[in-house]
Structure formats: C-alpha cells, structure tokens
Amino acid sequence: MKIAERWFVMAGVALLGAIAVAGLVVAIYAAWVLHDMPDASELADYRPATATRVFAGDGTLIGEFSDQRRIYVTYDQVPEQVIHAFLAAEDSQFFKHGGIDVSGVGRAMFKNVFNVLSGRRLEGGSTITQQVAKNVLLTNESSLNRKLKEAILSTRLEATLTKEQILELYLNEIYLGYRSYGVASAAYNYFGKSLNQLTPDEAAFLAALPKGPTNYHPKRHPEAAKGRRDWVLGEMADNKWLSQEELQAALARPLTTRAAPRRAEYADADFFVEEARRRAIALFGQEEVNRGGYYMRTTLDPALQTAARQALMKGLENYDRRHGWRGAWGTTDFAPGWQEAALRRATPPERRTWQAAAVESVSGNTVRVRTAKDDRTGTLLASDAAWANANRPLKRGDLVFVEPQGGQFALKQVPAVNGALVAIEPQSGRVLAMVGGYSYGLSSFNRATQARRQPGSAFKPFVYAAALEGDFNPTSIVLDAPISFPGGPGGRAWTPQNYSRQYYGPQTLRRGLELSRNVMTVRLAQAVGMKNVVDLSKRMGVVDDMSPNLAMSLGSGETTPYRITAAYAAFVNGGRKVDPYLIEMVQDRNGQTIHRADRRQCRECGRGFSGQESPRLQDRGTQVIDPITAYQISSMLEGVIQRGTGASARGLGRWVGGKTGTTNEYRSAWFVGFSSDIVVGVFVGFDDNRSLGGGEAGAATAVPIFSDFMQVALRERPARPFVRPKNAIFRTVNGIEEAFRPGTERQVREDAPRPTQPEGPQNYYDVVRREQEAVKGPAPSTAAPPPAAPPPPKKEPAEDLSDLY
User: Fold this and answer.
1) Main-chain dihedrals φ then ψ at residue 488, nearest 5 degrees
2) Beta carbons within 10 angstroms of residue 410's beta carbon
3) In the chain, what is the greatest distance between 2 CA atoms, to the nearest angstrom?
C-alpha cells in the first residue's frame, strides 16, 4: 500500500505540475497575444478618415477631397431598410448576441479543419462586432492569434459601446468597392443617391458587397452581383423585414448602377475645384483636408461656371478652325483590334459626344467614316470635309474625332491653343467662375492662376487711372504724334507706334483709351511718371513688382488673368481693392465653423427687429483710388465697347465696359470687361507663347468669348448704371457726360471744341467712324470699292511692344 500510495502521490504531483506548466504556458501565450492589444475604449471617440465635400454657393456638390471616399453618417441617419439589409447579409442575430455568435463560430471552426488541411484561407464566422474589431483595431491577417484577439476585443467592444454605436462604426468603416468607404459613399457612387433614396433592392446590393466587392462588381460580374443581391433580399424576407409583395417587386428590378464612381454630378468646375483644394491645403494642411470630413462652401455660381466653360471652349475651337485642319491624330489599316487601339486615344471629357473614328473612303468632299465605339458609318459634313481637304487632305485609314450631327458626322479636332476665363464679383471678391484651359482632362495646368503673361493694352487703364489721380481728367488733351526714345534694344531708338501706323494729333484721354492709342499712352505715362504708374499697379494688385520704364506702360510686364481681373474690380466698386477668394466657409465634421472668408464684424446683427434701420456693414477692401477716378475709368471703358476697339461687344447694351489687349507679335489676346456686378477676364494664347497669327488680336479672339459669357451672366445679373460718386461734378462734353472732381470742371466748357485731326473730317462722330473702320474695316457698301490701300509697314518686333488692342 505504501508503494501504491507513493506512486499515487507522485502521479498527483506530476499532474499538478503539468497543470501548472500548462497554466504557465497559457498565461505566457495569453500575455504574448494580449501585450499589444488595442484599447477598445478608444472607439468611443473614433472617427475614420472622411472626405471633405465641396459645394457651390447654391449647395450643388462640385467635388470632394479624400484619401478614402467616405461620407460619415450617424446611426439615426441610416434608414431602417439599409440596416436590415446589412443585418440579413452579415449578422441577423446582431442585437441578440454579446459580440460572438457561438453557433456561427462552431460552423466556421468545423469548416476550418478542412481549410487548414487544404491550405485554404480560414473562414471567420464573424459577427458585425468582430468585423469592427478586425477592421478598426486589428490587421487583416488570417491566423489563430488574430482570431483570439478578435474574440476578446469583441467582448470588450460590447461592454464599452452600445449596439447602435458598433453598427454605426461598421456602416461607416467598411469598404464596399467603387472607391467607396461606408454605406453613404457607396450609395452615391453606385446609384447617385443618398441613403434615404435607396430602394430595397439597392440597399440589398450594397449589403451584398462586404464579402467581396470585386467578386460582385456590377459591370464585370453582373450575374454574380444580381445573384448575391437576390440572396440578401431573400434573407431580409426570411427575417420578416420584407413582405412577400415587396420581395417579388425587388427581385423583378434589374441591377442598374453607374458606369463608374464620380466625385460629383456637376462636372464643369474641375479647374475651380482643384484651385480650391490648393488653397484649402494652404489653410489647413493636406492631412486635414483629405481626412477631416470638412464641409466646404465655395463662391462658385454653377450657371456662370457652365457658361464660362462653354464660352471658352467654343472660342478656342473657333480660333482653331480659323487656322485650318492640322491632320489626323493617327492611322489604321483596319486590322482586327483597330477599334480598341483607337478608343485608347482620349477625347476631351467635356466633349462627351465626340467619338474616335476612321476614314473609310474619300471621294472629293464626300468622306465616309466608321466609328470605333459602336461601328457606325456615315459621311462627314461637306463643309467639314472641304475644310480639312483645303489644308491636309483626308485619306483612308486616318483616325479622327467626329460628332454625330443630323444624320452625318462633324469633323472635330482638339485645339492646340489654350486660354482662361475668370469671373469675379467686384464688391466682395467672390470668384463666381474659373476655367483654366480648354480641358482639365487633357491638361490640369490652370492658366487663370498659373500662367504669367504680358497683358498688352489691357494694362492701359492703370496708366490712365494714375493720370486721373493727378492733374488729368477725361477731357484733357494729349498729343497723338510720333515719339522716339534713345537707348532702345540693340542700341536703337525705341519708337512706339499705333497699330494703324496713323497719328491723329491732339486727342482727349477718353479717345486715347477708347481707341487704345499706344503713343498717347506712352506720352501720358511720361507726363505722370512711371513710378506713379508702378506704385498704383502694385496697390491695385496687378503686379508685385515692375520696372519703372516707359515700355511697361504698354503692358510688357507680366501678370495672370486672375490678378488683372481682380484689379479691374476697383474700377467698378468705387476704387476699393478686394482680395478675390474661392472658399466662402468651412465647417468641421462636428458642424463648427473653422473658416469664414467674410471677417467683418456686425455688432448689432444679433439684436431683434423692432422697426429700426437695418445694421450697416462696412465695405470690403482697401481704398486704392478715388471713387471719382474709378467712375471715370468705368465710363471711359464703357466707351471702348460703345465707340472703340471692343465694339463687337456693343450688342450687350449699355453699362458694360472693358479693354482689349494683345501683346507683341500676337502672342496673347485679352479682354477684361465688366458690368456693375461682375468682372470678367479672358485670355487666349499658346502654352509655349508662340504667335496666335496675324490679326488674332483681343478684339477678334477674346471679345467673342467675353460676349458669349456675358449674354448668360447679364440674364442673371442685369447691367445697371455705374454708381455715381456723391461729390463728382458732371458736365456734358462732346455729347458725353463726363465726371470731374470739384473745381476741375472749370477747365472745360460744355461747348469745348471737339478734337480734330489735321487731315480728317471735323465732325467728332465722323472721326469715330473713320477710326473704327481702321480697326474693323468699313461697313459693306453697294458702291464700287476704292483702290486697295498699300499695306501698312511691317512691324519691327523690337519696337512694337503692344498694338492697338
């Protein structure tokens, strides 16, 4: 017995030792597994990376900035049917278990025995709580260690958060394909809807995606996607979340999704949105902008933005057509697969009706083409065929762009020229529209803000403003006669010339600006002093720095369309420099305003209304020129359109002004124009700054773009008289009402002699007509044409820094 007892004691000791060792091993393993376990309580304040959404001034969604496309929604913002769809697909017992579904885990463990033996990926049998633990706190590896951590964290989550909080995290964190993180983003990217607009079948499709978004891609695997959707609908019905009638109706609906995800329905503001992104990053940093979930309201007016894009694209295409067909962009021998190769050539995304096509046959101006996308055949418009054949004749196999038009095809080509258009509200500086080029999809370089170019004669109003700030008025006389300065380029004298090479003797400042007299401008700048002109240009924001030499008076310095357009705003708003801006207001994910562009204080705005006068806010901006000077320039620039170089825009009516501009050798064409409520800058030029070609001046190239845009803008913001300064004295001179500073009106009698030219007619309006004909050519006449005049002398590039326009 003693031996037996001894063995019994030894066996007991051994067993206890084994248990102790096993316990120690388990403890060590548990400690090793749990040593880096995250704290589940962190999820109480967890917010995943969320997209910053960008809106126009009227609330239109125009873009988003994000690392992950996610729109965070709270639990009470998720419709019940969306919740039911995900519960049916992923965890129907979610509101009943404590974080782990024991029956589900048992089934998964049974299957995993075979998965381990076959080397397959382990199945989870995971609850929604476990998926939250895995997606938010753990890695995505498939191992027993991770499974253990997942189970432990799930119980901790259930103890820390409510079921609703856990489900909220799940619905916002999960990846659902189509660049979509969370259900709200997926609803928009797949269906273009908000969550409360989804039908049961659409909600069921979203709930089908967590198992494998790639496997159920609606375009690549439509049958599998619909099959999985229908299974989810069946599960919803089994759980009594859908009636049989609702189930049958949902099953009968086809699965229809967008072709691809979009950041916004509105697609005309790419240049504007990208510029807003750069400015937002400068304010808040890239990390916050891409992950902070900000609400950003911008200054954009969608109607004006669309009009701006259409006007600029049309103007650039018209210029391009004037300069002829440049030839096919490729060729094909019609071998199998030619369509796929042709479709790889990008069309401008903004021209959605353009198609790649191949020329099948050519017989004179009868050209037959075949489209690459849908294999349609047809003939080109005869006028387009003649246009192409006149320069580079079409031949079989040429790859071109076409656009269906009335049963035929119009021939299209992407312009080589580019440009920009900016529209600003002069009283506030709000940027209402911005287009930085022909197509953002083809080139994202923003010529509105990034292209520094010489503005040519569009700079002249600042020279005249400097003169009016001094001793000059609109009726002051300046001599229009040849002038020369020593020490020009190459040691030669610099002799500025008028565009027409003609000179008209003594002229008023008004006429000098209306007809853009180069020599008068140089003489005026000399009288005023270029230092004063430069100082004023800096104060008004045209340039940061400029050499104070006379050549700069003709616009040979550099600026951007954005800056010069903003500077023109001072001519309309009473002489105040406003800083243009794109971002009106920004709120963080909690609805707190963290940025507001208008920082003016209103002490009495919060009081109740008792019949008293409304509070008055101070004007925005800094006073940089006298209000009378601003009005004088506005009136004179109205004359540019009514009687001067901008006469082709006269159809816009009264109270619209502006100034043309063209640089030496026709390298850039400009028009900066305005009404009382909008200032618009238009620039056209090649990116390599080569010549636009003879005659492609601001009046011919930029003014039509301005006119097309303003026809839309004036419907929304009708032109009205420019605000008359309170202390100005008005006198009628030569049939035009002029504004004077008090006391200076005595310098001019209302019956003052009209400006004349030595060799021309004495009537003022005959002079106007004759000068306009020098610009535009005479009006059509039934009389026999006079003998052709000899061509003007050839320009010397070194001497001609700016022309008439």
Assistant:
1) -80, -170
2) 16
3) 148
C-alpha pair distances (Å), 200 with each of 79, 130, 236, 628, 766: 11, 26, 10, 66, 76
Rg of the chain, C-alpha, whole Å = 36
Q: Can you give the length of the chain in residues? A: 805
Confidence of residue 630 (pLDDT cuts 50, 70, 90): very high
Q: What is the pLDDT of residue 788?
A: 43
Per-residue DSSP letters for 612-680?
Answer: PPPP-PPPSSEE-S-HHHHHHHHHHHHHHHHHSTTGGGGGG-SS-EEEEEEBGGG-EEEEEEEETTEEE
Mean pLDDT of the chain: 86
List, in sequence order, the alpha helices (H) in 612-734: 627-643, 698-701, 703-716
From residue 717, alpha-carbon distances to 266, 584, 710, 713 in Å are 22, 20, 9, 6
Work out the burial of residue 307: count CB atoms within 10 Å of its CB; fewer than 13 is exposed, 13-18 middle, 19 or more buried.
Answer: buried
**Element containing residue 468 per DSSP (H, E):** helix 460-468
Q: Which two tokens stand for residue 172?
A: 């916002």
Give the separation between CA 407 and CA 403, rounded to whole angstroms: 10
Please state, in angstroms and rounded to a whole number, the distance separating the CA atoms of residues 101 and 284.
44
478: closest CA among 443, 504, 441? 504
Measured distance CA(440)–CA(349) in Å, rounded: 8
Please, is 128 exposed, middle or buried when counting C-beta atoms within 10 Å of its C-beta (0-12, 13-18, 19+)? buried
Place of tokens 């609400």: 295
Q: Report the distance separating Cα 420 and Cα 528, nearest Å.
A: 32
Q: How far apart are CA 643 and CA 668, in angstroms?
A: 23
Q: 């031996």: which residue's tokens? A: 3
Which of the residues 64, 90, 514, 771 is marked catalytic? Answer: 90
Q: Compute the C-alpha angle 92/98/103, nearest 5°.
A: 55
What are 538's two structure tokens?
Answer: 């800096």
Alpha-carbon dihedral of residues 548, 551, 557, 563, nearest 10 degrees?
80
Contact of 422 with 565, CB cutoff 8 Å: yes
Separation CA 158–CA 132 (nearest Å): 11
Measured CA to CA, the distance from residue 457 to residue 446 in angstroms comes to 23
Phi and psi torsions of 480, nearest 5°: -100, 90
Per-residue model confidence as pLDDT tens digits over 300-329: 999 999 999 999 999 999 999 999 999 999
Neighbour count for residue 607 (Cβ, 10 Å): 9
Q: Are 595 and 573 in contact (CB under 8 A)?
A: no
Residue 64 among the catalytic residues: no
634 is catalytic: no
Distance of CA 508 to the CA centre of its chain: 42
Question: Cα 536 from chain centroid?
Answer: 31
Closest CA to 508 of 134, 281, 771, 125: 771
Pairing of strands 736-740, 583-587: unpaired
Q: CA-based angle 336:337:338, to the nearest 5?
A: 95
Q: Check if the beta carbon of residue 575 is closer than 8 Å to that of residue 630.
A: yes
pLDDT on residue 758: 38
Residue 381: CB atoms within 10 A of its CB come to: 18
Burial 505-526, CB ≥16 within 10 A → b, else e: ebbbbbbbbbbbbbbbbbbbbe
Q: What is the pLDDT of residue 260?
A: 85
Q: Measure the CA angle with vertex 292, ends 286 and 298; round to 5°.
A: 80
> Cα 450 to chain center, whole Å?
14
Handedness of CA 707, 708, 711, 713 (dihedral sign): negative
| Catalytic position from the list 126, 185, 439, 457 | 457
- Count CA within 13 A, CB hemisphere, residue 605: 7
Tell me how far apart the alpha carbons of residues 171 and 508 are, in angstroms, rounded to a whole number.
Answer: 72
pTM: 0.84
